[in-house]
Amino acid sequence: MKHFAWLTFGDDFDPDQFQHLVEQLGGARDFASWPLGLQRGEQVVWIDVVPVHPERKKKTDLIELRRLLGAEPRHEVYLHIPSDTRSEWLIAEVVVAAAEKWNFVLHGFDELPITMDKLNRRIARRDKDLFRTNPDRKPH
């Protein structure tokens, strides 16, 4: 199983404001050879913000992103954690804070979209596997 989730943003996203948001959560730039990161005790998330390169994406993926986002995809934020998934709560903090500022498409560890409503319900229940589309199904 992959241990990263990612957010795809449209035109209203500002990478500098996102970095500032992570810093407000206690994160730092130039974090352990990553552009951005957040750590609390043993929990850690490494973050990379990159522009979307449409020529590197499948046409069907771009069409779906445009449909879900309601805009042209411009930036992606990758949120990586160690294989110990306790750090997914740090990803949740970043995602919830970003949702207060921007519209985005969230993709979980299994590369499938997860709505904010579904994520918020999982957070409220203190679920494990916040970022797997079907948390009851175990990876192969």
**What fold name goes in the CATH topology slot?**
Cell Division Protein Zipa, Chain: A
Oligomeric grouping of the chains: single chain
- The CATH architecture comes to 2-Layer Sandwich
Widest sheet: strand order?
2-3-4-5-1-6-7
Counting helices, strands and paired strands, the structural category is: alpha+beta
Largest sheet at a glance? Answer: 7 strands, antiparallel
Based on Cα principal axes, name the global outline.
globular
In total, how many beta strands?
7
Q: Secondary-structure element sequence?
A: EHEEEHEHEEH
Share of helix, binned: 25-40%
CATH class: Alpha Beta
Low-confidence stretches: none
Beta strand %? 25-35%
Count the helices. How many?
4
| Overall pLDDT metric | 90
Computed over alpha carbons, the radius of gyration is 14 Å
Tell me the count of domains: 1
CA-CA gap between termini:
8 Å
In summary, what is this structure?
Helices cover 30% and strands 27% of the residues. The chain is globular. The longest helix is centred in the last third of the chain and has 12 residues, at 88-99.
